[in-house]
Automatic annotation (TrEMBL):
This is DNA polymerase III subunit gamma/tau. Its EC number is 2.7.7.7. It comes from Candidatus Magasanikbacteria bacterium CG10_big_fil_rev_8_21_14_0_10_47_10. Keywords: ATP-binding, DNA replication, DNA-directed DNA polymerase, Metal-binding, Nucleotide-binding, Nucleotidyltransferase, Transferase, Zinc. Coiled coil: none annotated. Residues 364-379 have a biased composition (Basic and acidic residues). GO terms for cellular component: DNA polymerase III complex. Residues 364-406 are annotated as: Disordered.
Amino acid sequence: MALYHTHRPQTFDSIIGQHHIIHTIQNQVIGGHPAHAYLFSGPRGIGKTTTARVLAKAVNCVNKNDTEANPCNNCVSCNEINAGMSIDVIEIDAASHTGVDNVRENIIDNAKFKPATSRYKVFIIDEVHMLSLSAFNALLKILEEPPGHVLFILATTELHKLPQTIQSRCQRFAFSRVSEATIIDTLRGIAKAENVAVDDSVLKRVAGKSEGCVRDAVSLLEQLIAAAGGAVTDESVSMVLPPSTSEEVTALLQSLFQKNAAACLSLIQRVSTEGIDIAIFCDEAITMLRTLLIYAYQKNISSEHDPRTIDWIESTQGSVSPIELVRLADMLSSRRGQVGTAPLAQLPLELLVIEWCDSQEARNEKENQGEEMLHRKPPIEAVEPRPTGAKASSPHPTILDQKNTGHSISSFSEADVRKAFDAAILAIEKESPSLVYILKSCRVEQVNNTSITVAVLSEFHRDRLADKRCKKQLQESFSDSLGTPGIELDFVVEKSEREVERINEITHLAAAFGGEVL
Ligand SMILES: [Zn+2]
């Protein structure tokens, strides 16, 4: 039996979320005065039918005394209802019984007779908005003057399709989506009961994916347990679960930062095939750009992001300048406005990709980048004539070409230092991916015998690299690569006048995004 059915709440107390509704209904049951007709509305899979069944049991339970609300789940009546065998609790799916004849036959005629063995005859009408107009009219008659032994529970996902006359005859309860925290707790309980170990990060992902729908969350967990065939870990989930929207958003931004149009376009294609709403996708991308921009100055990230996203946000520092973030956010906002009217929803986003990745500026940047080692254009002041001795015919500029100090004494060839950098990046890649971006964005300032001075983009980068363990690892890696023991690395923050100007400029722009610049 499916997990959702096995773990379906059987009492009011175990119903997930919806506390205000359950509390009211419990009080009515305790007082012995349930309403004659209830109308439960709200999205699918959040407990409307479950609540209806518990209510049907509670009003008919033989063991229950007047001071409690929960059915005993043990008496003849409770057992019959749990097994779906009770002749006094009639569940009708209005979606497949839309006609007036069905309503007359199944409800009106049936309601005239007293319940066979129970106190109440309970009609649970699911998806009630699907009934035809004449069926509604027939139903309305009996709702106006219901026999005392009848209880109606109507459920709908589309309240607005229900005639006002029907709505006004019922006690209405609007069920809401269940909070992520509550869904996580529920899933954890089910996993424990099923004796399966499930990572907390997986529970969070499943809860996020289910968008407040308990039924979806439980079904998804069930699929994951089946697929994993043991403990459900983050890795095993990645094989089954399509990436979340936030993962797709970060993947798109990453490719945009790298000006990789091909990767961007195939990602957009995938996103639209998966049925993700492009407008919402754009909104999330814009929100993420704002997060990056604020992080660039404040260095704090809201805890609402998952650890992967936080790691990614940290890793982007230095790979894209704040002014570029502003430019991208501007372009994205204006393309976002075209999504609703474009012949294809994804077209504006695709146009943005081309515009961004193939702009003259992007082409210049690519030319200047040459080696992947350098992810950015050096500040204008830094571009000075090549130091004498540098090979003018070198097909790609190298780190040493970029140095702006004319007086370094290098004991190593530029190729050697470049190799050392590559080796260090390779060594650190697995352990700490976020450092790779930082390393790629630095520039060799000066080489003096065994001491290498490296210019980094920000204090944050300097602190990361100068961290005791990291620095030691890097120095060892450089010593190995250069075949010289005792290489010492120094990190200095590079801030040219032009960059100070830029920062002042974007302070105003950042404020326009609701951010503050410290
Ligand atoms: Zn009972």
